[in-house]
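Hey, I was hoping to borrow your eyes for a little while. A protein chain has come my way and I'm curious about its shape. Take your time with it, there's no hurry, and the full record follows here:
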Amino acid sequence: MTKKHVFTLLGVLVVLALGIGLGTTFNLFGQGAAPNKTFLVMALHWGWVAAPVSGDGRVVLKEGGQGTQIVVKKGDTVRLILYNPEGMGDLHDTLEAQSADFYKGKYGKDKYDKDVAEMQKADSPIRQHSFKLDAFKDVNGKAIDVTVKDHELKMVDFKADKDGTFSFICNVICSVNTAGHTDMKGELLVEK
């Protein structure tokens, strides 16, 4: 995936996020402070892609465009709008096509073909993802481990109360890859 593809993807995500984010900039849950940083985080089979929606948070693409680092400040109340575009048509198909060469290069054509066949089944467990961030609890004190099914949109609010770099993953175990979606990783960088 080239930088041009990544920036095009981010542009599309920002447009999507604006439509979604305008209605979510207020604290919908009545818990804690309203978020001052909001990000759209979209699950793709080659990794998480994020785009800032509101606040001065930023996103850094990791080398090669594979993976995302979300950057916030210590003390921020952060909202993540999690979206799984699985099977959403042209946009998803385009993104998957752009990542196909990366995927084939890493796993081989046979595994790629097997995974694509599995993804085309409507009830396949590979069509769902989870967002797991062990380092923080949500505003209700619960672990951040959210399953996001095909075409589903979920939100998580949390307080970035410690600085450092923290990993988030998809921990779905699917029939295609017994290790789960292990390449779907990203980082949350909380600056002082």
Summary: The chain has one domain: 3-191.
